Amino acid sequence: MAAPEGYNALGKIGISYKGDYDSNTTYERLDAVEHNGSTYLAIKDAPDGAPRDDKVNWIYLAKGFSGDIGDSEITFTEAENRENINTGESVKTVFGKIKKFFADLTAPAFAQMITTKEDLLATKATGYVPDAKAVADAYTELNGKLNQDTDLTLVNCVSWSSDNTISKIGNRVFVTLGVQITSEQSSGSLIIAHIARTYYPKTAYVRASAAGGTNGDNHMLYIDKSNGAVILNLSTERYYSASFSYLAN
């Protein structure tokens, strides 16, 4: 309709709702259409392409979703740092933070947890992560065994005037004994100590002399390679001492 004489045409000054978007329809500036659950407003005549919020052809008039929200596409960028999500943040910000957490996860995050020291020591397969308590319990047990194994443990006797020690430098083992026999046995062979496996002798038996009593008589002492038993051929004496070394395995 032409403008009356003396007047200028103002053109379209209000929004015209055109219903669902149709790619075969030519739209003008200020035409509004519904597309994928949102309402868009054309901001130029003959806008190029389907409605989207590009600020050149179309802008959102009302943003929404089509059908089930689960079918809606979400565009987001992975966050630069791991940060907790907060109330009031946009969906794309939340998803960006979630993606950062998943991106930083490594295989142990999805591995099966071992919660007992028994399972920790028994498990040989890969793909398992030990619980801190299981590791601590296993370490405590192992450390206790190591401490026990490094002792030279007396049997049928008690310490006398000297220390009872065993040490190892390279493959050579050094032993010092000073014991008082407490067993009722007064002759023959008697186990007086046990040593740890790490000190087992290289040969079948290690033989050494043990001085007995105040006379200093020598008595045979030897170590059994098969079980680490320290055996003394004693007499009626109750006190014996020995210092010797040998080669271990």
Quaternary structure:
single chain
CATH topology of the largest domain: Immunoglobulin-like
How large a portion of the residues is in β-strands, by DSSP E?
A: 25-35%
- Indicate the CATH class of the largest domain: Mainly Beta
**What's the β-strand tally?**
15
CATH homologous superfamily label of the largest domain: Phage tail base-plate Siphoviridae RBP, head domain
Question: What count of helical segments does DSSP give?
Answer: 3
Kindly, what is the distance between the CA atoms of the first and last residues, rounded to a whole number of angstroms? 113 Å
Structural class: alpha+beta
**What's the gyration radius in Å?**
45 Å
Indicate the low-confidence ranges by residue numbers.
145-150
Largest sheet report: 9 strands, antiparallel
Order of helices and strands: EEEEHEHEHEEEEEEEEE
Please state the second-level CATH architecture of the largest domain. Sandwich
Mean of all residue-level pLDDT scores:
84
Short key terms for the protein model shown above:
15% helix, single chain, four-stranded mixed sheet, 3 helices, 249 residues, alpha+beta, Seminal Fluid Protein  PDC-109 (Domain B), nine-stranded antiparallel sheet
